[in-house]
Amino acid sequence: MLTKEQLADFLHKNGYKATPQRLAVYECLAQTQEHPTAEMLYERLLPSYPSMSFSTVYKTMDMLHRLNLVKRINAGEESFRYDADTGAHEHICCTKCGRVEDLRLDLAPVRKEAGSKSQYDVQSQELYLYGVCPACKMKK
Amino acid sequence: MLTKEQLADFLHKNGYKATPQRLAVYECLAQTQEHPTAEMLYERLLPSYPSMSFSTVYKTMDMLHRLNLVKRINAGEESFRYDADTGAHEHICCTKCGRVEDLRLDLAPVRKEAGSKSQYDVQSQELYLYGVCPACKMKK
DNA sequence: ATACAATTTATAATTATTATGATTTGCCTT
DNA sequence: AAGGCAAATCATAATAATTATAAATTGTAT
Predict the structure, then answer these.
(1) What integer pLDDT is reported at residue B26 of this predicted model?
(2) Between helices A4-13 and A20-31, what is the axis angle to 10°?
(3) A140 contact B CB<8A
(4) The pLDDT value given to residue B59
(5) Residues B40-69: tens digit of each pLDDT
(6) Which of A86, A98, B89, B100 has the fewest Cβ atoms within 10 angstroms?
(7) Which of A66, A92, A117 is nearest to B129 (CA)?
């Protein structure tokens, strides 16, 4: 999670320009807990950046992802979501309301089991949990 | 994993017709360990079913999936893969050669941890592991 | 064997994402 | 502080997987 200044520095150090669009896209993502899609980001940015283009959002997300500044979340939905928290963590999705929340789990035992059973060198994993969130449990 | 006859019965009991196309699509999937995409199935079926249409493959997979006769595998690739093994199991993907293999892991502890940390009623989960398969380790 | 609803086929539509190219702009150099 | 240029933005077109549509065909109950 970087400040605007830290992101600008980081971009410069990697040979990229720190454009207002890039800073705004990252800031918008860093401010929310909702794991927005590219479209959600675009819609939120439009009021303050009327010239913002859809392709700028996509290109920016692609760059931030390559630089490991954001996570791509593929929870089996029609489009990707993004997360400015790049630390190791998982996601749980509510099957009623569609929200996606962060979750920190200990997957070391599972990785170990996977490595020994498969004989692969395990490099990473993606775990998505699905269920009913507390709020939706109440509504029922 | 059903035989042709069992699948025909099952389809009839659920109000569907047991067409040669449907039986062939399922049989093709059940015969392989490779977790093919719709396109791979189509290409494999074309020689023996020259009239087979792409949309029949898609519609058949959609129906088999709704009837819980196949699993949809979303390993972050550009298209879905399918698996005729519907029992609880995970998948591990080789980042060098792209192969996808089955893996049976004990996720009960992780589900329990997820439920207590998130307060969700956990219904299901999808876990994808990524690494280098034994064959690709040798090649290096 | 017939009839009819379900299915197949071919094609068009949809949707998320990526590519293209002309215009604009950040930023380095002076 | 201004100029120049590579890089970035914007608008639009292209791509690719999947889904929808509708006419022709076919499985199956009678």
Answers:
(1) 98
(2) 130
(3) no
(4) 98
(5) 999 999 999 999 999 999 999 999 999 999
(6) A98
(7) A117
Which has the closest alpha carbon to A83: A65, A56, A63, A57? A65
Query: Which residues of chain B does A111 touch, with a Cβ-Cβ cutoff of 8 Å?
Result: 129
Report pLDDT for A130. 97
Q: How far apart are CA A53 and CA A55, in angstroms?
A: 5
User: What's the pTM?
Assistant: 0.92
Is there contact between B58 and strand D, defined as CB under 7 Å from any strand atom?
yes
Q: Is the CB of A56 under 7 A from strand D?
A: yes
Q: What is the pLDDT of residue B66?
A: 96
CA of A57: nearest nucleotide by C1' is D9
| All domains in chain B, ordered by first residue | 4-83 (1.10.10.10), 90-139 (3.30.1490.190)
Q: How many CB atoms lie within 10 A of CB B25?
A: 28
